Every structure is written in structure tokens, then in C-alpha cells.
Amino acid sequence: GGLFELARAGGVRLDVERDAIPVLPGVLETCEFFDVDPWAAISEGTLLCTVDPESVDAVLAALDDEGIPAAEVGSVREGEGVFVDGERIEHPGVDPFWATFEENVAKQRDAEDGGPTDEEGREEDAE
């Protein structure tokens, strides 16, 4: 999400190193469980910055002083698009998080109501 927005807004190419991106515990496991591509999901709560290369250490130190986890994850160059470990990745178009969220909320409601979990059953219950 956020990488594409940043690249598009700046009219630049972003080269990112996958292993350099800090990921909170449980995030990858959750994405895997729900079959959500973490590169296509929203970047809720994430701050992406482009920083002059000479200022990177100072910015990282200032964020660390405030207890904010941060890392240098790549570089900006002329061009367009987002490249992870040298491979171009495409914008997903639609954030897979929301479809997964809605599907699982519906399942939870059905389980709580003791009702069916298929679309046909929900329509009959609504009548």
C-alpha cells in the first residue's frame, strides 16, 4: 500500500530490501493464516519517509530517541514503480485486507447466531 502511494506521489522508483523492513511479531503469521499478501495490504499505522542519504543516521537516531522503531529499507531513484529485492511488484488494485475482514466478520456473526455460513442461508434468514 504505502510504498506504491509514495512512489506514485513522488514520480520515482523505490528499491526496497525485503529483509530490511521491520515487521512486528505476529504480522506475517496473521497474513499467512488469512492468505493475505503483506505487500498488498494496507500500511495502517506505518510512516514512510524519504530522507537525504546524508541525514539517514540522524533521522534514525531521533526516532530511536522517541522509542519509534525505524529502519532504512531502500533507496529512491529516477523511474517509476516499486521493486523489492530487484523484482518489480505490482499494485494490487484492491486491498485484500478488507475482503478477508468482511468474510471473517460474517463467519463470526453466523457462528454467534448459530445460523448458516453460506450466502443462501443468510438471505433466507433476512426474510
TrEMBL record:
Comp. bias (Acidic residues): 113-127
Pfam families, alphabetized: AIRS_C
InterPro entries in the cross-refs: HypE (IPR011854), PurM-like_C_dom (IPR010918), PurM-like_C_sf (IPR036676)
PurM-like C-terminal domain ranges (all copies): 3-84
Segments of this protein annotated with the region Disordered: 105-127
Listed name of the protein: AIR synthase-related protein
The organism of origin for this protein: Halobium palmae
